[in-house]
Fold this protein.
Amino acid sequence: MRAVLGVGGGIAAYKAAELVRALQKRGHDVQVVMTRAAQEFVQPLTFAALTGRKVVTGLFSQTGAEDTLSSAVEHIAVAQENDLLVVAPATADLLAKFAYGLADDFLTTLYLAFTGKVVLAPAMNNAMWEHPATRANLEILRQRGCSVVEPDEGWLACGTIGAGRLPDPERIAGTVDSVMRHKKDLTGETILMTAGPTQEALDPVRYISNRSSGKMGYAIAQAAAERGARVVLISGPVSLAAPLGVELVSVRTAQEMRQAVLEHLEESTIIIKTAAVADYYVAHVPQQKLKKTATRLSLELDPTPDILAEIGQRKGDRLLIGFAAETENLLEEARRKMISKRCDMLVGNLVNRDGLGFESDQNEVEIITRSGQTVHAGPSEKKEVAERILDQIATLRLSLRAVDTVDTPA
Ligand code: C5P
C-alpha cells in the first residue's frame, strides 16, 4: 500500500520517524511530505534516509530534471499515486486549514486533491486541543470521513499535563490498519445491541447504578454501522452522542431494557449485549423520597431479569454475544457465562485496572467462542477493540453459514 505521511510543525515531529518505521513494518511504502515548520524541528534527511525517497518540502521546492516528483502539478500526482494520507503530528493550524480548504503549501494542497483515506493524529498543547475552534474543525473533518487518532494524556512539551500528546506510533499505525481494512462485511445484518449501565430507583430521586460509561458499546455500534449493518442500540443513561447511522432507543432500568430488547428481537440477526445491567432492583419503590434518620437503613433488593440468559433460550439461529466485566478469574468466568447463558461468543474484560475498561477510552479483552477459540485484543482504543470484536463476529457468521451450506445441499 502506498502512503503519504504528512509531518506538521509540532515538537512531536520527531516521533514521525518512528511512525515511518511502524508503517513500513506493516507493508506500506511511505512518501514523506513536511511542512515548513516541521523542517524547523526535524531535518528532511532523517525521513529521506528512512524511506529511501526524496522528502517533499514545499510547493515549489522540487526542481531539477532528475527529480521524479518534479512537475507543476506534483501534488495531484502524489494524490493520485497514494491510497492513504496520514498526518502526524496534525497541528491545530493544519486541522484548521484542512477544515476550511486552505491550500497554501504542499501538504494542504495535497489534502484537497486527495481522494483516498485520511488519518489524522493531532498533537498540541492541551488548551489548544480543547479550544472550541479545534473541536469544531475536527468535527468538520470527522464528518467528511477523516479518521482521527485521539491524542494521549500526559506531560506535554510545554510543561503542562493534559490531552495533546502524539499517540504511540504503533497505535497510529494500528488505526491506519483498521481504516485500510475497512469493509462492509456486516451488510444485511440487523444488530440489536445494549450498552451503558441501568439505573434502578430506590425512591423518586435516588437510584443504584454502576460505572459503565457505554463507550465500548457505542464504539461497537458505530463500527458495525460503518461496516454495513443496521444497528438498533438500546442504551441505558450515558453522556455520549448517538453514533451516526444507528437507531437509538433510550431506557433507564433493567426492566425497560428487557422490554426494548424483546420488542426488537424478531428483526435482529445478531445480538450484542454490552450493557452493564444492574443485578438487583427495588421491587416496591416508595412514592415519596426516603427520609434521612439517624438509624441504619436496610434495602430489600430483588434480582433483575437476566436478559442475556432469557435471549439465550429463545435466540433461534441468531448470533448471541455477551460481555463479562470481571475483577478476577477472567477466562474461567467468561467461559462459564458463555455456556450458562447460551452465547455463541463472550467478550471478557477485567475492569479493575487503571486506564482500561469502565469509564476509560481504552480496553483490553479476551474474545472467546463456543468452539473454544480465544482471541486477545488490546490494550487499545475502544474503537480498535470494537473492530477486532466485529472481525470475530463476522468470521463466526461466515463459518456458521459455511456449515449450513454443507448441511443443506440444494
Ligand atoms: O452475569 P453477568 O451480569 O456478569 O453477565 C454479563 C452479561 O449479561 C452482559 O452481556 C450483560 O449485558 C448481560 N446481562 C443481562 N441482564 C442482566 C445482567 C447481565 O443481559 N440482568
Q: What stands out?
A: Residues 194, 254, 273, 275, 277, 279, 304-308, 322-324, 337 surround cytidine-5'-monophosphate (CB under 6 Å). Residues 63-68 have pLDDT under 50 and may be disordered. The longest strand covers residues 319-326.
